[in-house]
Design goal:
Helices cover about 35% and strands about 25% of the residues. It has about 350 residues and is an alpha+beta fold. Among the domains are: about 170 residues, Nucleotidyltransferase, domain 5 (2-Layer Sandwich), CATH 3.30.420.40; about 70 residues, ATPase, nucleotide binding domain (Nucleotidyltransferase, domain 5), CATH 3.30.420.40. The strands form 5 sheets. A 6-stranded mixed sheet has the order 3-2-1-9-10-18. A 5-stranded mixed sheet has the order 13-12-11-16-17, with helices on both faces. Strands 5-4-6 form a 3-stranded antiparallel sheet.
């Protein structure tokens, strides 16, 4: 088979593998988002209700009352605790590729996003697993994927706030080195925990869990000055009760900011001095956390001592990462992927 004929049978996938959600796009127009969770029946009744050994994604989450939910990604990387953890991750990855609807003769080539400072061991583990379901796989940092998709590869700082990690990357027109990247473990899940604790401190009678805290965050998240009071309907002793959550939401969301601002300052100083003013005007937030209201203004204000910053948030936090990964996969033939990062199968 010629190279041209082989290219016709290539299914390219851009996969943003996240702690909470996984987003996927293919070169054939398929795109989807699913929760990064696998559910297994708790007992024989659950097995009867489910009718299969396990279920993946949003469907698993909806059936959580009788399933044991397993999240194979912790802080954005694969758990490496036991064979059981690896099996859960394998079930998730297999489901993702199957949902992309590959043909029987397709050569599947996937670019997979991981946290900026993911360890070599973790990347190797992911690639070993990916080789079981795709022909060629490349792992690259998630903020680099975003920057590639936005055509912002020079004099830019990308900050990707996910569920498990906040990843920052200084883009200087080259493949970013480890020194150009930062991974923080304070991200969306950390906000949920802080928010749950802050609400329970004020209202210990409420029936709270992290799912409820996440719902509050997704509805009201903000930093800086609130646009108005935030009121949420909870349950206390099974009965509905409304509470003002404005201050707990502010405290929880702003708990991310000091480390992010410090990391931006460190990366800014790593650029040549003649470029730093340009970089200051190219600060981009991505990921689910970029939806936090007031984020751009808050960061701009706290960087004022460095100059007049311009901070933007991506238009599509859900898919911008995997869109950049797919673009990279399509524009750069797989035989060149080793120049960008860790590869299996090429």
């Amino acid at each position: 088979m010629s190279e041209a004929e082989g290219a016709k049978n290539r299914l390219f996938l851009g996969i943003d593998l996240g702690t909470s959600h996984t987003a996927v796009m293919s070169n054939r127009g398929k795109k989807f988002l699913l929760k990064s969770v696998v559910g297994y029946p708790k007992d024989v009744i659950g097995l009867k209700l489910l009718g299969r050994p396990y279920v993946v994604g949003d469907e698993a989450f909806e059936m959580r009352s009788y399933l044991d939910l397993r999240y194979p990604l912790q802080d954005g990387v694969l758990s490496e605790i036991s064979d059981r953890d690896l099996e859960v991750a394998r079930h998730l990855l297999t489901h993702v590729v199957k949902t992309a609807e590959p043909g029987p003769n397709d050569e599947i080539c996937a670019v997979i996003g991981v946290p900026a400072r993911a360890s070599g061991a973790n990347k190797a583990l992911l690639l070993k697993m990916a080789q079981e379901v795709v022909h060629t796989a490349l792992v690259v940092s998630e903020p680099f994927m975003v920057g590639y998709g936005l055509d912002k590869l020079v004099n830019t700082i990308i900050i990707d706030i996910g569920a498990g990690t906040t990843d920052l990357c200084a883009l200087k027109g080259t493949v970013p080195s480890p020194e150009d990247q930062v991974t923080l473990t304070k991200a969306g899940n950390y906000v949920d925990e802080r928010l749950q604790n802050a609400i329970l401190e004020r209202h210990p009678e409420l029936q709270m869990n992290l799912n409820v805290a996440c719902a509050v965050k997704e509805q009201f998240s903000f930093v800086g000055t609130p646009s108005g009071p935030a009121t949420f309907e909870f349950r206390a002793a099974g009965k509905p009760v409304s509470c003002d959550v404005t201050e707990p939401v502010k405290v929880a969301c702003e708990s991310l900011m000091p480390d992010i601002i410090e990391s931006i300052e460190i990366l800014l100083r790593s650029f040549q001095p003649e470029y730093q003013n340009t970089v200051l005007k190219n600060i981009v937030f991505a990921g689910g956390g970029s939806r936090i209201r007031g984020l751009a203004g808050y960061i701009k204000d706290h960087l004022r001592s460095f100059g007049d910053a311009e901070v933007t948030c991506v238009k599509d936090p859900t898919l911008d990462g995997c869109r950049g990964a797919l673009r990279l996969a399509e524009e750069l033939p797989p035989q060149y992927w080793r120049q960008l990062g860790d590869v299996a199968g090429a």
